[in-house]
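Narrative summary of target 7.
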Amino acid sequence: MATSSLLYGNLMPPSMNARLPAAPRASKNLYQVLALEPENVDGVEAVKRAYRSMARRHHPDVCPLTGKEEATRRFIEIKKAYEVLSNPVLREKYDHQLGLLDLAADGEQEERRVLFPREVWMEQVQELKGRSRRRARRKEMGACEKI
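Modeled conformation, tokenized:
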């Protein structure tokens, strides 16, 4: 399965190719799996701390033999939650599925487009390209003088 994804030019590992989990089917979402509150998550470090704490507690190797299957299932659930919430792009998509993203952010982006139109951006890009070309020419001339 991994080789087929590499054969077709997909360089991401199979775990990253998996679809995002659907919005919470049961009572727990990915934040609840890691015992986090979505509003209080400051970034990847908070997710990592919660993952490590939960992984230590529910790892199949530290659980008693009687609860090994349940611990394995729970550990896999924790790992999947960490994979999504620790990746900023996947987390943003998941938050969007849950409806946690602020709709005002879309308005801010639209406002930024109005205040900073494409023409202004293109002028700046052209200016930067010109500077880069001039700098490259100066380097070439400096290299020729050393010879």
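Helices lie at 2-7, 14-17, 30-33, 44-58, 68-86, 88-98, 104-115, 118-146.
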